[in-house]
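Here is an idea for our session: we take a single protein and study its fold together. To get us started, please write out a protein record for me. Start from the sequence, derive the backbone structure tokens from it, and show both lines together. Go ahead whenever you are ready, and we will take it from there:
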Amino acid sequence: MLWASFFTMLTGLTEPIFVPRYWSPQSLFNLSATTHFDVESLIFSWGVGGIGSALYEAILNLKHIRMDSCEQKRERRWLHLLSLVSLPLVFSTLYFFTNINPIYCLTVGLLVGGLTAIACRPDLLWNALIGGLLFLGLYFTMFVLILAVFPDFINSWNHQALSGIFVIGVPLEELTYAFAFGMMWSCVYEHIRYYTLPIKSSH
């Protein structure tokens, strides 16, 4: 979780890409409005990175198994590299060469990253799919609770630029992002560090 959280935290520095095109949330010291950076994005990214990377294993009580040297040598390194660069490559292409909202660029990039990871490591298919659904459920519950306590938070999003579809007050874009993020990030550690997971839990 610490490994994943550290690298995910750095993505919080991309907040100016999304403010105000995607949303304009209130922030500590009003940083979001004045600089488009904010402290909350770093904290949020740290938290979701660690949770997203470990939720599948934690819920199903699975233990990592290190691939042996022979299995590692059989891995297609070029496909690993393609998988790792697919997210920034797809996101950058869509962001700089289209006019679609950055949240859609990010969601598509995450989906492509998750699919290429599965193509490279088919054994992580269920890890990715179930991890995506679990993180979606957690993310959705979090936003429902936030909106129940702070109903005005719904005004943080730029509704005119989005689909206008809400699920119990939560924008559809947040939910598709959550699934795509959980799908990719739930298997990134195993994918990069040559770990696999058993089908059944160990007790």
Q: What stands out?
A: The chain has a mean pLDDT of 84. The first strand starts at residue 65 and ends at 66. Residues 144 and 150 are 10 Å apart (CA to CA). The chain has ten helices and four strands.
